[in-house]
Fold:
Amino acid sequence: MKPADCEFEAEALAAALQSRWPERVDAALRAHVAGCAICSDVVAVAGAIDAAREGMGVAVPDSGQVWWRAQLRARREAAEAAGRPITAIQAIAFACAVGLLVACFDTASQWFQPALGWIASNAAEHAALLLATAAVVLLLPAAVYLAMGRD
Ligand SMILES: [Zn+2]
Structure:
């Protein structure tokens, strides 16, 4: 029966995994592996695994990089999850603002008709008032839209 382990097994395995086998190892280790069943098996298996890994072109990424990517992804997902309710509330607020604007305009339209006629008849005198009214009517929805569009 063969012995279960050998004192040079770790050294032979390290040499095979670091692609130092068989050129860049001591002659003593090479001689031992040639005569030792355990070490020759270790070198053969490690060499086969190394060759298969290179043949498949599988590049195992660095564990630190994997951890860093996982952290970035978790942070991005948390930010997206936190941003979702805010977007919904902004949409509801925008709908309320539009509804309020329409309701105000509808209510004021009865007052608007004679006011528009009065402004038109006194256009020269009330150009400033007309400009201010136009600015409020045009700029307010634009300001609300821009505030909602900015995330
Ligand atoms: Zn051995």
